[in-house]
Design goal:
single chain; mainly alpha; 62% helix; elongated
């Protein structure tokens, strides 16, 4: 029974949408971002071992710099 009620409400909403579209004389409004379909993701990218090594080395360098700055900031605290 609830399903029938929802179907009637849906029909009323669809009619209202048609009326509004007729008033706009066929002007199409942009769809909300939630209704826009996105492209499916392509195949997963695979990095070469050399590229992974370069990325890992760069990350280690960034962490070393971070730790160096954190240690320097810890020593400068006034007592």
């Amino acid at each position: 029974m609830a399903l029938v009620g929802y179907q009637i409400e849906k029909d009323k909403i669809d009619d209202k949408i048609r009326q509004i579209q007729a008033q706009l004389k066929g002007k199409r409004l942009p769809l909300p971002s939630a209704a826009v379909e996105t492209k499916p993701a392509g195949p997963k990218r695979v990095l070469s071992p050399a590229a992974r090594r370069r990325i890992a080395a760069a990350q280690r360098k960034r962490w070393a710099e971070h730790r160096k700055r954190a240690a320097a900031a810890g020593k400068q605290k006034p007592e």
